[in-house]
Amino acid sequence: MTDLAAPATRTSAEPKLVSYARLAKLDVYDYYLSLLVVLSAVLLPLADFDPAVLVTLAVFGVGSVFMTASMVAFDDLTGYRDGSDTANYTANPTLRRARRKPLVAGNLTEREVVRFGWVTGVIGAAILAAAVLTAPFAPQWAIWVTVAMFVLAIQYSYGLKISYHGFQEAFIAGLGWAMVLAPYGLVTGRFDGFVLVQALLFGLGPLLFGVYSNTNDIEGDRAVGRPTVAALTTPRGNRRFVVALSVGEFLLGAVASLTGIAPWWFVLLMLPVTVLRVRQLGIGFGPRGDILLARSIGFTAHRLGAVLLIAANLVHTS
């Protein structure tokens, strides 16, 4: 473990505020798109729209940002202490810039990161509690999803370290599911099958760029005993796992359309995401073998998927 008061060698000097923004991963907004998906599901007809919904979604969103900042800060802290971040982010600095990891870059100390993690965690808990207490509705299941989301997020790589006990992939998807289902329950007071399908698809988005990151980080994760699927299995087994997730994403929409849970046209609307998944697989696991480019395509696919979910809701409820 490094000295708490001494940072690693600085790769570049930058204002502390910038380093904290990097630590909080504020540029990665993919989970927060869930709030727009939920808004689109309840927006129409406009004559029946309750403005209180906007307040609840805004408060829930701010709480989620602080919660996520705490989660990723503690994740960076653990990754720095066990050496995995240093190995993964400095092995090829052209592809994985260490500046994204302020501890690795030497721009923040461990003490500063720990303080940031706890402060943002406490603020996030308070704001999420305010969202629940002031929401138009508060079904028990939505409250418990919110509580579980927060508790597990903080302990993703800290405390219980659930990502170090074989649950990393499940958590990445589950956080996306919760980020749709919890606010939807708070603003409507009900559970909806089509929204559940959307939540499941939304959660698969971060997972389907996360598994490509894990493929790139196999050596570092194995060295510290972080049991991702990529680290535990063979290259063929990992490829099959990623293919299964990609196919499962398509089948989820197809089955929902066939069974009437979703409109019949829903699977057709989501086909552009499927096309990107095929391209992602080809680039990541084909002859080119460019895992990090495939990972970046995963971001695009998830963001496009969120836009299409929003469109589906607006068409469905109009």
Automatic annotation (TrEMBL):
It is a multi-pass membrane protein. The keyword ATP-binding does not apply. Its main location: membrane. The chain crosses the membrane at residues 29-47, 53-74, 116-135, 141-158, 170-187, 193-212, 241-271. It is found in: Membrane. InterPro entries: UbiA_prenyltransferase, UbiA_sf, UBIAD1. It comes from the Bacteria. Pathway: Quinol/quinone metabolism; menaquinone biosynthesis. Keywords: Membrane, Menaquinone biosynthesis, Transferase, Transmembrane, Transmembrane helix. PANTHER family: 1,4-DIHYDROXY-2-NAPHTHOATE OCTAPRENYLTRANSFERASE, UBIA PRENYLTRANSFERASE DOMAIN-CONTAINING PROTEIN 1. This is UbiA family prenyltransferase. It comes from Actinophytocola gossypii.
